[in-house]
Predict the structure.
Amino acid sequence: MPVPSKVFLTTPTDTSTEASGVTGETREHIDATHGKQTYRLVKNTTAAIITASLGVIFKSGSSVECLLPAATAPANTFAGVTVGSIPIGHYAWVVCSGNVTAMSNDAIAVNKEIMTAGTAGKFDDPAFSTKEHAILGTSLTLTSAINQTFTMRVSGLI
C-alpha cells in the first residue's frame, strides 16, 4: 500500500507514552493563528515536565530524545519548539518549521535573528558576532521583557 507524501496532525498538543510516529518523521498542521507548521516527534527523557513555548534540543546520540538547552544551542542540535507541555517519559510533536509561539529570555526586537540563550529553552536576540551557527529563526513580534511570548519563524531545521 502506498504511503501518502504528507501526513497531517489534527491535535499537535497530544502526548503519549507510545510513539505516534517513527524517528525522523515529520508531519504538517495548519494552525489557526500561525498557518502551516511542520512538526517532528520527540520524547521527553528528562526528570521534569517540559512546558509549552520552549526550545528543545536532541540529547547527545539520539534522534528522538530531547532536553532543554542550558544556553546557546547550535542549530544542528535543535529539535524544535514545544506547543504544549510534555510530561516525563512522553512523546510529543514540536515545531521544526513555520511560525510558532515562543518564550523570551529577555526583550526581543522585531525581525531579529533568534537563538536559545540564558534560561533553559527560552529565546533571545543577542549580538551574533561569533554565534551564527546558533541562529534558529526570526522574531516576528516584539517582547519588552523576560518570560513573554512572541511569534518566532523557525527556519532551516528540517
In short: Residues 26-154 form one domain. The radius of gyration is 15 Å. The mean pLDDT is 91. The chain has no helices and ten strands.
